[in-house]
Amino acid sequence: MRLGDLLWAEAEDADGEDLGQVHDVRLRHSMTPDGRHRLVVEGVIVGAGAVSARMGYAYGDVQGPWLVARLMAWLGRHSRYVDWGDLEWRRDEGVVRVARRAGELPHPAETGHD
Amino acid sequence: MTREHLDVGLDLLDRHVVDRDGRDVGKVDDLELTERDDGTMEITALLLGPQALGRRVGGVLGRTMEGIGARLRRDDEPARIGLELVAELDVVITLTHPISQLPVGRSEAWFRTHVVEPIPGSRSATG
Amino acid sequence: MKKLLGIFLGVFTAIGGFMDIGDLVTDALIGARFGLSLVWVTVVAVVGISAYTEMAARVATITGRPVFDLVRERMGPRIALGNVIVSYFVNAITLVAELCGVALAIELLTDVHYLLWVPPVALLAFLVLWKLPFEHMERMYGLTGLTLFVFVVAVWQLGPDWGQMWHDVVHPTIPGGEGLPTYFFYAVVMLGAQMTPYEVFFFSSGAVEHEWDEGDLGEARWNVFLGYPIGGALAIGIQATAYLVLQPAGIQVEHLSQTVLPVAVAFGKVGIALAVLGIVAATFGSLMETLLSSSYTVAQHFGWPWGKAKAPVEASRFTALTIVTLLLAVGVALTSLNPITITIYAVYLGAATLPFTYVPILVVANDRRYLGEKVNGWFANAFGLVYLVVVSLAALAALPLLLVTKGGL
What we know:
By secondary structure, chain A is α+β, with helices and mostly antiparallel strands. Chain A has three helices and six strands.
């Protein structure tokens, strides 16, 4: 399975509402006892504003120029974070089914991305 | 220094990969996902090369890239570097071994042997 | 003393950004047709390219990686791949123009047809790539290119009415017989000639080839803030000589010899010799820069080992691509398409694609993950944003202007 197949999958919420596309995947990093990296998928980020997310504005470390940052944040305002446990990835259809409603999902910036 | 939470698009995909000695290996063109028995999903390998990148780019161009890659490698699967071969995950991804010991770098080697080496003076650095 | 020499040589490299065949042709062409009415574009271009090259240099010295390397990380594979394809294409066409430019300049000295010079010049380029150290390559054309100052001195020699000249610079007028769209078409052409994309790629890749680090940022800034204005002054000098000699006589620039004509009027044979020598050197230097830039962008996008300073076997795909690009350029040049036309189109395409070059630089220069505290301050961002708007407007206007003016007729 490739991560590239998960990206851009169409997401819909429990009511069948369109949530946009998956445009990023959040991982939790840890080290195993024998010193190897471990990357576990924690959740996905869905919603409009992929361009701004990609460039690191929506929730990354790019903050300037001020005007552009404001614009990008505005474009990314519909982004939502979905926990991996709350979704079902239908690979063949290229669709992600979320078990929650759009309103219940937090904005990625609220989820403590360090 | 790796942070506890990483976003694949921002922190991992398209990053530059170098070997233990700092030699350029390539870019993270895609990532291999494996589902564990308990239902968790993990990244298990870095995928490099036109076969991986082509699929992400998509369209006619992407499929052409995949085709070229498959023909060059004589393999349907892209070049794969297991996560156990990753030493550091940072602005640049560093591997645990030199490139000669890794399953990558075949096209660079091919061009070296067949195109560049035969030209006289190809081994000297100009500085 | 060595440090001083180092700074001066870097400055000469920056000057070269205003002295490639595209600049030489457009400066003379525009001076002959529009007098000094487009000098303001040169001023705008100098400020713009200085701002962006400084950002690219800052990124290169602090991260140790050139800007294009980071474009893919920031803009995603599809946009970045599109960017690479466009950049390679524009660079390749520019390369053909530079190759023909060197050959044409040698023709001026030797009276031997320029096409016969194309293969030897390409061979020389290959040898320089293969054998000559990076720094020597830069110095070579930097020092010999200084002879181009004969154009500036020629302005004095031609004894102009300085008051009139100043008036014409600050009160741009469109000469009778020229339309407004044509005026703006050439404004875009000049902007493209002077804010050439390959210049930024080359500077930032060169900084990495030199292994510059944060301590060298000061020197890099000197190169930029001293070199580009001097280069701009040279460009204005060429426009001025054309304005003084060609425009009153109604001579249009259709051949490189007309670029040199004003210097001939001012200084006779000595002037021609110096000017042509300078053109050969500067254009050859730009040939190397463009050639390397085309390979740099592709190699950096795919993560291949790259670098002129490395032994060729250490960067085989990069080397192979460079050789193939050079051979393709020779092939296209030998089809004997009009080199002046190729030059104008190369420059024009460069202008149309400027936003592709500059947007990622602005984004990366603001990313704390790469630059930490050294991200753009509000000053750099203000300039960066203004220029982004400027080059975007130019890019958007490029195609309509091309169609309306039928290529600047």
